[in-house]
Amino acid sequence: MLVFSHQAVSLTLPADKFEEERAQFLTLEKNLKSMPAHRLSLLDKDIHALAHYPLYPYLLRIKLQRTMTLKNKREIEAFLEYYSSQPASYGMRYRWLNYLAAKGHEHAFLDSYRAGMGAKLTCQALHYQLDETDNPKALLTDVDALWYHGKSQPDECDPLFYQWRKNGLMTPEKVIKRIEIAATEGNRRILPYLRRQLPDNLQYIADAWLAVTRDVGAVNYAKHFSLKNPNHESNVLTWAIEKLAWRNPEQAVKAYNTYIPKNVFSQPQLHIIRRAIALSYALDRRAEAGEWLQIADKPGARDDVKLWHVSYLLRQQQWQQVLAVIASAKPELQDEENYRYWRARALEALGNTMQATVLYQQLAQERHYYGFMASARIGTTPNLSNSPVPRDGSAIARLATTPATLRALEFYRLGRRTEARREWRYLLSTLPDEQVTHAGVLAYEWGLYDQAIVSFAKSGYWDDVQRRFPLAFEDHFKQQSSTYEVPNALAMAIARRESSFRADAVSPVGAAGLMQLMPGTARYVAKKKVSQDTLFNVKDNVEFGVQYLRYLMDKLDNNPVLVSASYNAGWRKVLEWLPADESLPVDIWIENIPYRETRHYVKAVMAYQHIYEQQLGSDKNIFPQLAQDVIPTTRAITTHPVTGDTQLAPQ
């Protein structure tokens, strides 16, 4: 075995059998991309000499892409067939079909076309098929699925839509349905065009959508809603009132009260409107929340209405009502860990200690945030329920030599981690669950920790705690945690939750690396400009991430709950969430975090921190303290006497 290092990421990979071939691959790859297309046949001998090398199909792909002509149809179709569904062929058929369409090779296009290749190619295929059919109307029924789209379709669809309309298949109902799709997906630009496709007596429905998508407050202007077609108008009203509720619940209530007597809403629509009003009030901690949660919390409502009804009552510490609302939930909801925990908490608060203890004892056998909190409330040690996967050496050895595994391994050696993950995902998709678990063990042993975590999650084997919570990059975390006096387990828990230890992870908003740092945050703690490549370096990322945790701990009185919430949502937002009048028990405050993502994030990080304490050989347990602590009120917000920074006063 050897240790391979790329951007400070240590991978314990097997012995390298392809070092010479890898060098040849890189040379060939460069030549295939740079040489004139008419000379690429000179490389055929060298390409085929690497037929046993795992990344051989990628060389074939490059050559076929560079020499894509009808003359090479047989080679291209053979490649697509042989490597069908494999990463080497991803996007290749799409490229080939676009080439055939551009050149007008109709029959070759239809031979190669497969369903589900996007609107442009689907329209092209239907257009070609119309040229060959004696029954166009039957074929044009397939156009409905293309029509029901919120955005304008490609130009290739225009002739198809013309034929569809000419054959009487574009009805007012279909136009109105597309108007609804476009409006609710935020594409107002297409609405005037669709309005013109309606008869005069129905164009006011499009006008109503145009009005409320410009300003949802227009829902309170009766001139937009004649109620001549209540089934369609109720869709406009429901969408607009729901949107308005999140911005201005009082105005939403006004519109609701206007149309309730007119019986325009279906029961599902009432659930949508009442939920939005109730949750808007609850999230803003408004006095009206209790009344509206009672109105909204009815059979058929979404599960989160029940969740927020319970959370609101917890904030008021109305324990008897907590029990009543939980008892009204569907049996499957009552069996979920959060409701079992809060039933126990309510019973305990009401003096029913024995019943509460029984529920706590059951929960304490489970490995999650609520199980760990339950164990703290009865003074027992949390149960990690660790049951490692028995290592099947022969199964793992077979798995290590599959073509997909070898391709993933080669891409890792080349430092092409995106391609490596793509091959690993393909590998997992081809395996039964038991072998997916073996893939998790293999990835763990190779130091591919993010793929080990992904593999165990896909297989559903949750109890191999050691491998699912690896001590990845332990030396870096230990060094930086010691330097900045941050709990090592907390830093590792954050990294595990943020990226699953994927060193080159990038979020949709630009957070990068192991600890998912925003460039601005990294620049702030580093006191210099930090590039994305720097954030992909594990050592640097851990240093900046742990340094930022230290900053948050200083600002938030070392409170791990507020620190983890701030790492996810930002400390300014967290300070806004502090209780206004009276401090709250930690578990109740967490349950009332307005952002669903942050609420789950904090619970996960707290649980992960305990798991990592055990993984690191420590007997520390933060949950007894969490069970006793309270979250301070906004009165604890103060200003540092020297720096002038906003912070929490020490409690």
Short description:
With 651 residues, the protein is mostly helical. It is 62% helix and 3% strand. The strands form three sheets. Strands 1-2 form a two-stranded antiparallel sheet. Strands 3-4 form a two-stranded antiparallel sheet. A two-stranded antiparallel ribbon has the order 5-6.
The rounded Rg comes to: 30 Å
Give me the CATH architecture of the largest domain, please. Answer: Orthogonal Bundle
CATH class of the largest domain: Mainly Alpha
**Domains (count):** 4
- Number of beta-strand segments: 6
Work out the strand percent.
Answer: under 5%
Catalogue the unreliable spans: 1-10
Give the neighbour order of strands across the main sheet: 1-2
Spatial separation of the terminal alpha carbons: 52 Å
Shape: globular
Number of helices: 39
Structural class: mainly alpha
Explain this structure to me?
By secondary structure, this protein is mainly alpha-helical. It folds into four domains: 2-114; 171-301; 393-462, Methyltransferase, Methionine Synthase (B12-binding Domains), Chain A, domain 1 (Orthogonal Bundle); 474-648, Lysozyme. 62% of the residues lie in helices and 3% in strands. The strands form three sheets. Strands 1-2 form a two-stranded antiparallel ribbon. α14 runs parallel beside α16 (267-283) and α22 (353-363) crosses α23 (369-377). Residues 1-10 have low confidence and may be disordered. Residues 399-465 form the Lytic transglycosylase superhelical linker domain. One of its GO terms (biological process) is peptidoglycan metabolic process.
